[in-house]
Design a protein that fits this description.
Distance between the termini: 72 Å
Number of strands: 21
Low-confidence stretches: 1-6, 13-19, 26-31
Largest sheet: 12 strands, antiparallel, barrel
Order of helices and strands: HEEEEEEEEEEEEEEEEEEEEE
Helix content: under 10%
Shape: elongated
CATH superfamily of the largest domain: monomeric porin ompg
CATH topology of the largest domain: Porin
CATH architecture of the largest domain: Beta Barrel
Oligomer: single chain
Number of helices: 1
Strand content: over 45%
Number of domains: 3
Length: about 350
């Protein structure tokens, strides 16, 4: 009995020792050093670097959650985990930690030429497949706005909007559809839609060329159908979150069919300006979309559409936006207003 007791005590001691070793190993594993960033002002940030894009390094910390640090503020940095690094000149470095010394990005010695680059040349950490030339990135928006009012006047207003963009390194496809149907006392007082399809091919740097085709209908402005098609050349002037700005100009063939007025067709010049900004912060987005067509046979015949908006996230991928739309058409019949103004609040899903 004594021998059995001793053996039981020995097994208990061995088990306790094994438990202590396991806990010690777990502690050592949990105590593995985190990524470290040293700023030019001497501040040290300890955490886990999660990525870099548009000149901003993101790092998760225990004391302040997720932080965004401009690359220009970083003097030294070292990560424990390897990343895929993409530089401005197109160089891609696979499975290498993010190492910065004296504001220079340190790359493997096996690379030909210099192994140190200014940190400003780091474009993306862990780029998406399309950014490496593999396939397309699909982004889009589907939203609607519905207003119902009952009382002295029964009104129903329904607006819808669909946008989709497929982007690769070499080209881009864009589709946009907008529409509106309004009723008052069971009588329609607005019914219109427009659709646009575009193809862009990137030439070099910020320049690209493309072709677009569009169609629209607005029966309460006497427009049964207008469509146009033509080529253009564009330039991306800025492409940063604080400001994206692009402009396009080209030639189009325009055909207009009216319900009452005389139909017409003409050569036209068209232009487009698109801008957006995250200046207000909080993942909100200010944006402006403008396009126009002028009749080259009669320059007094002018069409311009401009949308100003503020979009902001609600939850998950749900986005809300307040917009004002100005639509000008100098060629409408005399009894139709040349300028339409639309104010709307919409909610939609973005991806």
């Amino acid at each position: 009995m004594v021998v059995k007791a001793l053996r039981a005590g020995q097994w208990f001691a061995v088990s306790l020792l094994a438990l202590n070793v396991a806990l010690a190993n777990a502690g050592d594993s949990a105590a593995e050093p985190s990524d470290e960033i040293v700023l030019k002002n001497g501040s040290r940030i300890i955490g886990t670097v999660t990525g870099s894009r548009d000149g901003v390094i993101t790092v998760d910390t225990e004391f302040a959650g997720s932080l965004s640090i401009e690359q220009g503020q970083i003097a030294n940095m070292r990560t424990n985990e390897p990343f895929v690094l993409q530089l401005e000149d197109g160089t891609v470095v696979q499975d290498h930690p993010l190492i910065v010394q004296d504001n220079e990005l340190v790359l493997p010695a096996s690379m030909s030429g210099t192994t140190a680059y200014p940190l400003a040349q780091l474009m993306v950490v862990n780029p998406e497949p399309w950014e490496l030339g593999d396939g397309y990135k699909w982004t889009g928006l589907a939203s609607a706005a519905l207003t119902i009012e009952n009382g002295n006047t029964d009104t129903e207003e329904f607006d819808y909007k669909l946008e989709a963009v497929w982007r690769s390194l070499q080209d881009r496809y864009t589709v946009k559809i907008n529409g509106e149907v309004d009723e008052a006392n069971n009588v329609k007082n607005a019914e219109n839609w427009n659709a646009l399809a575009k193809y862009d091919y990137f030439i070099e740097g910020p320049w690209y060329w493309g072709i677009n085709a569009a169609a629209e209908q607005d029966r309460f402005s006497d427009l049964d159908l207008r469509y146009y098609i033509g080529p253009y050349i564009g330039r991306q002037f800025y492409d940063q979150p604080v400001l994206t700005l692009s402009a396009e100009g080209g030639l189009v063939y325009v055909n207009e069919n009216f319900i009452m007025a005389e139909d017409k067709e003409y050569p036209g010049a068209n232009w487009t300006v698109n801008a957006s900004s995250d200046y207000l912060g909080g993942d909100s987005r200010l944006y402006m979309d403008h396009n126009g067509i002028v009749n080259l046979s009669d320059t007094d015949d002018l069409i311009m559409n401009t949308t100003f908006g503020l979009a902001f996230p609600l939850m998950f991928n749900i986005e809300a936006a307040a917009e004002v739309l100005f639509e000008y058409d100098s060629g409408v019949p005399a009894d139709v207003e040349k300028m339409d103004q639309t104010y709307r609040f919409r909610i939609g899903y973005v991806w």
